[in-house]
Specification:
Blueprint (H helix, E strand, L loop, with lengths): L7 H14 L8 H10 L7 H11 L4 H63 L6 H31 L12 H44 L1 H4 L8 H28 L4 H9 L6 H17 L14 H4 L1 H16 L3 H7 L4 H13 L2 H8 L3 H7 L7 H20 L7 E3 L12 E3 L11 E8 L1 E3 L5 E2 L1 E7 L5
Parallel strand pairs: 2-6
Antiparallel strand pairs: 1-4, 3-6, 4-5
Helix pairs in contact: 4-5, 6-8, 8-10, 8-17, 9-10, 10-14, 14-17
Length: about 475
């Protein structure tokens, strides 16, 4: 067969078919091929076909494309592996922080438990009273509180350094979380103060009981020949009366704190003395109790009636008073008033109780006015509080009987506010006498003094303040 002549149209058709049936290199198009064909030498009819064939041979092979794909996959896997490692590292850090926080919280709970045990030991040392155990328990409580403070500082430093995760903003603040524990601590402190006041009252009772026992066991030292009243016996009874009034005032202060009454405000209302400290409140209450019970001491019946028996027959009156003193000395006041509620001592106790506690104060401390209603009805309550009051009232009543049994009767005196301190006639309730020229004056009188017929002086008890100052 004769070969068909090759024309330009056949060449163009071949080249176009080759371009359409084979993959062109990137950015290489048919238009570019045609343009380049037009730019080539027109004399060579095979130039376009040869050029297209060369370009087809320079296109990437399948192996090269597969290698490039593997490299891209490896890069993607490497990125995924790096991301996974970062997530694992963050998870490990979070777990470590959580373990640190859990360990810290465990230490906090252990410290709080230790604080509770130490405070329980401190309470146990109060009853029975044991000073050594008190000191050891107090040191243990302080040590536990310091441990908690160190844990708090450790938490703050760790949080600042990023070792412990910051609290969630949506979580309650730390102050709200700690508030219940602070309230419980305040309540424990109030209970501790109440227990301390109760302990002070028990100490005063012990001192009064010891004084009474010494007077009973050694009557020869107090009574004169033939059992006549003496100045020494009066001094002993005066100390017993002071101890009894201190014990009752401490008990009253304990009840105020237990009832949640503002002690400073209540004391100011009762005594008209500006109170600024618990110790001052104690002395101010003692002054109020003493003033209430000794009011009218200079009269033979505390101004309960208009009797003048001491003027009509002084000797018989003195003998009668001393007989009443000896008869009543061994009696319990509650038992006596249970038999004779309207006797002279019963009228004295009812009158002084009304003067000692106004109705509003009685309701605030005792919860109601039942005591006053019973007393106004002509009888006397059988309650622990009224029993404490009767012990103090009996001590003052006994002192009054003995004072009018002596010849001449003792005269009592009281230091006025702002008076100069004289150690011969006054003693400071603080227990430490001021130095000479210290410029201390009387802030208020706590208990009156007595001048006896033999010239002896029972000094008045006063609360001292700097000159120009206020209690």
């Amino acid at each position: 067969m004769a070969s068909k002549p090759v024309t330009v149209g056949d060449l163009i058709h071949r080249v176009a078919s080759s371009c359409l049936s084979n993959r062109l290199p990137c950015n290489y198009t048919l238009r570019d091929s045609v343009d380049s064909d037009l730019d080539d030498d027109d004399d060579d009819p095979f130039a376009d076909a040869v050029s297209s064939s060369d370009k087809y041979r320079r296109s990437p092979s399948a192996a090269e494309v597969e290698v490039e794909g593997q490299q891209e996959e490896e890069e993607k896997l490497k990125i995924w592996e790096e991301g996974g490692q970062e997530e694992e590292r963050k998870a490990a850090q979070g777990a470590e922080r959580a373990r640190d926080a859990e360990a810290l919280m465990a230490e906090v709970f252990d410290a709080v438990s230790g604080l509770r045990r130490a405070y329980a030991a401190l309470q146990g040392a109060h009853c029975p009273w044991d000073p050594d155990k008190m000191r050891a328990a107090d040191a243990a409580v302080v040590a536990e509180l310091r441990h908690l403070a160190r844990l708090r500082d450790r938490f703050r430093r760790s949080a600042a350094a990023g070792h412990i995760p910051r609290p969630n903003p949506s979580a309650p603040p730390l102050r709200e979380a700690v508030a219940p524990y602070e309230a419980a601590l305040d309540d424990l402190q109030r209970q501790l103060q109440s227990k301390q006041a109760e302990v002070d009252g028990l100490k005063e009772k012990l001192a009064a009981a010891t004084s009474r026992r010494n007077g009973r066991h050694h009557p020869s030292k107090a009574n004169g020949p033939g059992g006549a009243p003496t100045a020494d016996l009066f001094t002993t009874c005066a100390e017993q009366a002071r101890a009894a009034t201190r014990a009752f005032s401490a008990h009253l202060l304990h009840l105020m704190r237990a009832a949640g009454v503002d002690v400073a405000a209540a004391t100011r209302s009762l005594t008209k003395i500006p109170v600024s400290s618990p110790q001052l409140a104690k002395h101010a209450l003692e002054a109020h109790v003493t003033r209430s019970l000794l009011g009218g001491f200079e009269h033979e019946s505390f101004y309960l009636d208009g009797s003048l028996s001491s003027l009509l027959d002084p000797a018989a009156f003195r003998r009668e008073r001393y007989t009443q003193f000896r008869d009543m000395r061994g009696m319990e006041p509650a038992e006596l008033l249970g038999v004779l509620p309207t006797c002279a001592f019963g009228r004295y106790a009812a009158t002084k109780f009304a003067a000692l506690l106004p109705p509003r104060v009685e309701e605030a401390i005792l919860g109601d006015g039942e005591h006053r209603r019973v007393v106004n009805g002509g009888t006397h309550p059988r309650t622990p509080f009224y029993g404490e009051f009767l012990r103090a009232a009996k001590a003052v009543w006994m002192l009054h009987l003995l004072a009018f049994a002596l010849e001449p009767p003792p005269s009592h005196f009281e230091a006025g506010r702002g008076a100069e301190f004289h150690p011969e006639y006054m003693e400071s309730v603080a227990g430490v006498p001021p130095r000479a020229g210290a410029g201390m004056v009387v802030g208020f009188a706590v208990a009156p003094g007595f001048r006896l017929g033999n010239g002896a002086v029972l000094r008045a008890r006063v609360y001292l303040v700097p000159r120009g100052g206020r209690p």
